[in-house]
Amino acid sequence: MQTENTPYIKPLRWFVIIAMLAAISVWFYISPEGALGKLDAVGYAICHRIDARSFQIGERQLPLCARCTGEFNAAAISFIVLGWMSGKRSKFPKRSILVLLFLFFLAFGIDGSNSYLYLLKQTSQGALDNIPNLYIPNSILRIFTGSGMGIALAAILYPAVNQTIWRNSEQIEALDWKILGIIIGIVSAMNLAVLADSTIMLYLIAYLSIFGILVLLSAVFSMAWIMIMRQENTFDHPRQLWLAAASGLTLGLILIISIDLFRLQLTGTWGGFPGITG
């Protein structure tokens, strides 16, 4: 990379390293105790964490609600499979796959909207009692529609990242029907294991879903960093990406910490929003 030899790169590296270590330290300091408590502090920034709408390990809820668990677990699995099978492929999916991804998005929006209206009906009094619902929401629909959204997000973001970073990307669709089938198969099997109350899978999906959040945030912020630094299409090897990746992770953690502190100040609890149990 040409920018490797510019005068400001060396001090910038140290600044990013120090900032990343500081962000990780603050995250560990403010988050609840225990391994799952650290995961809670990530989920807390992006999810309502209503206990009744979350899966449980015994009496302990997962860091994310059922919908967000499905969404970010599927995003994590999708990125892992795409990284393994697609490499530097940078073209968006063909039209037929995009139609399916749009249907995933549509299902997510319909089920989410219906679930929100049902929540209003449960928690409000008076005129809102008569809000119409398409059906009674449930965790099966939440995790599967969430998973569809997670796959769609990863399917669009992965080639966008490759278009941004690589000097010589492959002009091939990053997601084809074979890869999509593998992703859907893995995600569906994990979802069914969670619904069967498999303790091992509940722990695994808790970690993978939080990993999915960090991957998505890091990818978006890393692309922003690369564009700000005017380094688009200058990378040849993954090891050259460490500064951009560290910057993306740091910015993602700063965003999570900021939302955590604001919500904690507002509600005074690491749990779901007070007074909402539906």
Care to describe what's here?
The protein is mainly α. The protein has one domain. It has 8 helices and 4 strands. The protein has a two-stranded antiparallel sheet with strand order 1-2. A two-stranded parallel ribbon has the order 3-4. Helix 4 packs across helix 5. The longest helix is centred in the last third of the chain and has 30 residues. The chain is globular, with a radius of gyration of 20 Å. The termini are far apart. The model has no long low-confidence stretch (mean pLDDT 92).
Shape: globular
The number of helices is 8
Mean pLDDT across every amino acid position: 92
Number of domains: 1
**Could you name the ranges where pLDDT drops below 50 across 5 or more consecutive residues?**
none
N-to-C span: 53 Å
Largest sheet: 2 strands, antiparallel
Following the backbone from N to C, one meets helices and strands in this order, namely HHEEHEHHEHHH
Structural class: mainly alpha
Radius of gyration: 20 Å
